[in-house]
Write a structure and sequence with these properties.
The chain is α/β, with parallel strands linked by helices. The chain has helices at residues 3-17, 39-45, 58-74, 88-107, 126-134, 151-160, 185-195, 286-324, 344-353, 377-392; strands spanning 81-85, 116-118, 137-139, 169-173, 198-202, 233-237, 251-255, 266-267, 275-276, 336-340, 359-360, 366-370. Ligand 0PR binds at residues 30-32, 87-89, 92, 124, 126, 173, 177, 202, 204-205, 239, 251.
Length: 393
């Protein structure tokens, strides 16, 4: 290797060494994890692939179709249409774009009127970005005692106070960023069916967890249904780069069928495919290839094992919290654990000074720990010690 190249790599390494490493077990507030080792080889193989011009990369394009088919399978959809894109943010913005387009069609001469969309208070901030771009109108019903959208309130709202043009869309969350809760999509689906409303489910996190959640981790009387088997669920965000263990960037947007493509297509007459539907034009095929490989390699059984390990560790954390006198906000639904705290910002900053990175909830005073696959029981023991030291200081 030329001296200059070696020097550049050495220089880069210095920067990279300052980054935290998942395997050190100190990253407790991230929805990403160390990608599966097979990813390295695939990244190299697909380095120059560009799905922005799919005619040049027909092999990668075909793989994308296969991945969407496999993801469709875990979401109970035999005819899925969708893309592996940059992440949950792009996926959610894409879904809002479709709702906006459909609503315009419905509003006729009032087509400049904003789309009215029901959005949970706990929705990810990516929806704020969509609102800025598309001037949407969000309506947020209160949360019920389980920290999910109050379905009864919503039903009354839609029936009693429907605006002239009604509600154009409902966003439901399956694996909420803050608490890991799942909206009652079954009930929402009934309401949506009755009033002809589009449902988008944000399962960016839960999409690779809920289908693989064993019975013993499922809470009684809790509704885990969230997929295309429910009527009026027309799109789902599901991110391989979260619990799917794919490297970044790998987000997923899946629609019920191909008919939704027309709302996204813009003309791109000089490209090999003369229409483009994704928000991002030039886009790597790395996410497609890694997701394809991981779904083949791990299969349902592999993902089930990963999810069980994370759930087991989540319950281990709950047990340790109890021993040390810390309280949870809710019994974990998925592998996200909440720790009540009067001043979560202060505590998280103290923890950060000690090298621990946790995050916080917005809807309740609590710390939030995402028990990802890189976290083991020893990390949890050490973390609880550190947390209790914060409280003593
Ligand atoms: N929808 C949900 C439910 C999410 O939790 C997130 C991200 C998104 C959409 C957006 O996904 P992208 O970030 O892929 O666009 N949730 C995490 C969060 O905001 C993202 C994250 C990941 C944050 C790793 C920190 C981190 O270290 O907490």
């Amino acid at each position: 290797m030329e001296i200059k190249e070696k020097e550049i790599l050495r220089e880069l390494k210095k920067y990279r060494e300052r980054d935290l490493k998942y395997e050190d077990g100190k990253i407790l507030g991230s929805m990403c994890s160390k990608p599966h080792p097979i990813s390295k080889k695939i990244v190299e193989m697909f380095l120059e692939s560009n799905l922005g011009d799919p005619g040049l990369f027909p092999g990668t394009k075909e793989l994308e179709g296969e991945v969407i088919k496999s993801i469709g399978n875990i979401l109970n959809n035999k005819n899925p249409f969708g893309y592996i894109i940059s992440g949950g943010t792009e996926a959610n913005i894409t879904a809002m774009r479709v709702i906006k387009k459909i609503s315009r069609g419905k509003k006729g001469k009032d087509k400049d009127k904003k789309a009215n969309i029901i959005l949970p208070e706990t929705a990810h901030f990516s929806f704020e970005k969509a609102k800025d771009m598309m001037d949407l109108n969000y309506i947020s019903p209160p949360l019920d005692k389980n920290y999910i959208m109050d379905v009864k309130y919503l039903k009354d709202y839609i029936e009693d106070k429907r605006e002239k043009h009604g509600i154009d869309g409902i966003v439901a969350i399956a694996g909420c960023t803050e608490l890991g809760t799942i909206d009652n999509v079954l009930e929402l689906s009934k309401i949506a069916k009755e009033h002809n409303i589009y449902i988008h489910v944000d399962a960016a996190f839960g999409g690779f967890v809920i289908p693989f959640l064993e019975e013993r981790y499922r809470l009684e009387n809790y509704n885990y249904e969230f997929d295309f088997s429910l009527e009026n669920v027309f799109s789902i965000t599901i991110d391989p780069h979260k619990m799917g263990l794919a490297p970044i960037p790998a987000g997923g947007i899946v629609f019920k069928d191909y008919s939704f493509k027309k709302y996204l297509d813009v003309e791109a007459p000089y490209l090999t495919d003369t229409y483009q539907a994704t928000l991002i034009g030039t886009r790597t095929g790395i996410g497609v290839a890694t997701t394809w490989a991981l779904m083949k390699l791990l299969g349902s059984e592999g993902y089930r094992e990963i999810v069980s390990k994370c759930m087991d560790n989540s319950y281990y954390l709950i047990k340790k919290m109890k021993e040390y006198g810390f309280e949870k906000v809710i019994t974990p639904v998925l592998n996200i654990v909440t720790i009540k705290d009067e001043d979560p910002l202060r505590t998280s900053l103290m923890l950060r000074d000690m090298g621990w990175y946790v995050s916080m909830c917005r809807c309740v005073d609590a710390l939030r720990i995402i028990v990802m696959p890189h976290i083991n029981k020893e990390h949890i023991d050490n973390f609880i010690e550190a947390l209790s030291q914060c409280k003593r200081d």
